[in-house]
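The passage that follows is intended for readers who have already worked through the single-chain material. We present the inputs for a multi-component assembly, then the predicted structure in tokenized form, and finally a short commentary. You are encouraged to pause after the input and sketch how you expect the pieces to fit together before reading on.
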Amino acid sequence: MKITKIISSMLIMTALFFSGCKPKDADIKASVEEKLKTNMEMPTPAMVNVNDGVVTLSGECKDEACKAKCAELANSAKGVKSVVNNLVIAQAPVVTAPVVVTTDDALTTGVKDAVKDFPTVTAVVNDGIVTLTGEIKRDRLQNLIQSLNTLKPKKIENQLTIK
Amino acid sequence: MALQDKYKQLTDAASAEGISNLQVREQDNVLYIDGEAPTGASKDKLWNLYNQIDPDFKAGDLVMNIDVAAGAGTKATVTTDSSNLNIRKGPGTDQPIVGKAAHNSSVTLLSKTNDQWWLVRTEKGEEGYAYAQYLSPE
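Having made your guess, compare it with the prediction:
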């Protein structure tokens, strides 16, 4: 009788001892975060939430491989029961090519052709910028500006007096 | 972004007109709009709009390079003010004149050397380079 009591109380204590050892959610979270740091492909750290040992990952990942790697790392952390992988694949940013400005030599040749029929207009090219001085009739302005725009200058400084 | 707002009406119109390869880029306080218009009328529409937003093109904050889609064999009208259009041996005003295309006459596009110079054939059969600004694809 006495022995049974002792054994049962020992069992209860053992159970209590082990449940006390069970990692807390906060510790699991810290451990998962630590593991995830080893995944260098993450653009920004994933958000980690832990509830009764169930880890939920959210945030952005570079690709599917990176997403799988994160889940694997989270799973390897101590005390993790399961992983809910809510990571999303980041959309690639739209890459636009920089504007290519015509070199001054090519621009000067082109500008010379463009202003040939406009004797009252003077055009100077410097560092991709075409500066127009002199005078022009309003009804011919668009014609000149259009042809200068096709030359791919950096900028057109229109200082023309418009008649 | 301010420039894209200023010319939003223009870029919206460019999309609506079906400008292909449309690119709108802002760099060093200049907006660059590039693309290819399906017709000369679409291009004219955009230029008129540009002139409305920036009267007399004084602001110097937009470079708009809109080409008109035109393949070899396309007919183009000579849109000089009143004079004949010089047909030259090579692409450049320093090249010798080999022929003339009359104002309002029609030429056949053979190839586009660049955005400025097109190789054309006149109604009289003369072949040479003409300044594209004075040609409107039909």
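Commentary: Helices of chain A lie at 2-21, 25-36, 64-75, 104-115, 138-149. The longest strand of chain A covers residues 54-61. How closely did your sketch match?
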